[in-house]
Amino acid sequence: MSGSSWTRVRAVARRHAFVLLRSPHRLFDVVLWPLVDVLLFGSLGVFVARQGSGGSIAFGYLLSGIVLWHVVYQAQIALSTGFLEETWSRNLLNLMVTPLREVEYACGVALFGMVKLVMGVGVVALTALGFYAFNVGRLGVGLIPIIAVLLVVGWVIALFVIALVLRFGTGAEALAWGILFVVMPLSGVFYPVAALPGFLRPLATALPTTHAFAAGRSLIDGHGMQWGQLGLATGSTVVAGLAALAFLVLMLGTFRRRGSGAWHAPGPH
Predict the structure, then answer these.
(1) Which of 22, 32, 62, 152 is deepest in the core (most CB within 10 A)?
(2) Comparing C-alpha atoms, which of 92, 242, 259, 247 is closest to residue 164?
(3) 157, 232, 156: which is closest to 193 by C-alpha?
(4) Half-sphere exposure (CA, 13 Å, Cβ side) for 126?
(5) Which residues 6+ apart lie within 8 Å of 15 measured at CB?
(6) Spatial contact of 112 and 82, defined as CB atoms under 8 Å apart
(7) Range 186-195, long-range pairs (CB < 8 A, 24+ positions)
(8) Residues 142-151: what's their mean pLDDT?
(9) Quick one: DSSP state of residue 97?
(10) C-alpha 80, offset from chain centre
(11) Can you tell me the distance from the alpha carbon of 112 to that of 78, in angstroms, rounded to the nearest whole number?
(12) CA 82, CA 111: separation in Å to the nearest integer?
């Protein structure tokens, strides 16, 4: 990346940092929501653990699951809402007539999103440690490739959402939050896919998140890393990423041909 490109990337990241500083209520997704999630699933895990055999395993599944899920959640929300901010502020057309390239813009939003991700996941991990004495770090270095896959999955989902917003306008904004509540139960975040109804299992197996969380549960069980599951997660993430990029390029071309920059809706200011 050239010096001028890096300057534009940093400018985009700073632009979104200023928005966050001027609108502290946007920290809800980064601080309050992760805290509520840990309280909910941590307390549920404590209750289950007190019921008898197998409860401690369920406790570990719940808390490790919510920590890892927030990697997907924060990555996806940061990139999606970063783009939506341009529609809420009616700035999208302004960006499209500048020297800023699409990849530079995406990198800038992702760079700032990494800061939000560290904050959000940090809140989840520290709350789990402080409130429930659950240290996700005890799972070892095997967490690193799992987190990397889940991070990229979050970005891939965000690319699909952005493409749909470009195609269908602000009516598709709800997908930025709603799509995650579809992916979450199908991914086996807190349980093996075998617990799902039979007709949903093939769909769940096709998701990269399913295999990443299966690898995470293997670490919780003390069985070590399941490299086969991690390989499936990585391969399906690459396929999904290429499909998301192709879809986004197609929708961006449609957006430009239609001159659809006039659509927008008031954002959550």
Answers:
(1) 62
(2) 247
(3) 232
(4) 8
(5) 108
(6) yes
(7) 186/210, 187/69, 187/212, 187/213, 188/213, 188/214, 189/65, 189/66, 189/68, 189/69, 189/213, 190/41, 190/61, 190/62, 190/65, 190/66, 191/61, 192/217
(8) 92
(9) T
(10) 9
(11) 8
(12) 11
Residues 170-197 have pLDDT tens digits of 777 788 888 888 999 999 899 888 889 9
Torsion of the alpha carbons at 124, 182, 142 and 28, rounded to the nearest 10: -20
Per-residue tokens: 136:
């996700």
Helical segments of 23-142, H only: 32-49, 55-88, 92-96, 102-132
Across 157-172, b (16+ Cβ under 10 Å) vs e yields bbbbbbbbbbbebeeb
pLDDT at 93: 67
CA dihedral in degrees (154, 176, 14, 8; nearest 10)? 70
What span, in angstroms and rounded, lies between the C-alpha atoms of 157 and 73? 10
Give 253: exposed, middle or buried? Use CB within 10 Å, 0-12, 13-18, 19+: exposed
How far is 52 from 48, CA to CA, in rounded Å?
8
Radius of gyration of the chain (CA): 19
Concatenating the DSSP letter of every residue in 206-267 gives TSHHHHHHHHHHHHHTT----HHHHHHHHHHHHHHHHHHHHHHHHHHHHHHHHTGGG-----
Question: Band of the pLDDT at 140, cuts 50, 70, 90?
Answer: confident
The rounded distance, in Å, linking the Cα atoms of 44 and 27 is 25
pLDDT greater than 50 at residue 268: no
